[in-house]
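How a chain folds remains the central question behind the approach discussed here. For one protein, we set the task of working out the structure tokens from the amino acid sequence alone. The sequence in question and its structure tokens are set out directly beneath this paragraph.

_____
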Amino acid sequence: QVQLVESGGGLVQSGGSLRLSCVVSEITFEEYTMNWYRQVPGKMRELVASLPPSRTNLYYKESVKGRFTISRDDYKRSTILQMNALKPEDTAVYFCNAAWARFGYDHWGQGTQVTVSS
């Protein structure tokens, strides 16, 4: 059974940092694009950052560019979202996603809450 287990969320003051981690099991990790999404109540889930297996063509949502960094470790089957200079508008539930578009494979973690106080 595919599992994506996130950790690292919490409460932080504006300007602070958090490091989200996602460990994945039971997939061919090195073939998947790893994504981080976030969602606030009443709004659609939005893509924050994306890192394909080739590690080229990284994507960042405009509002997080220069503050967030996505990385992956294929050996450890994990992806990290380093979030610096956090703002209250970054408050959301953050979800790890593994996607292999060629085959339509799409797997999600359970989400981790990030709250940034002003």
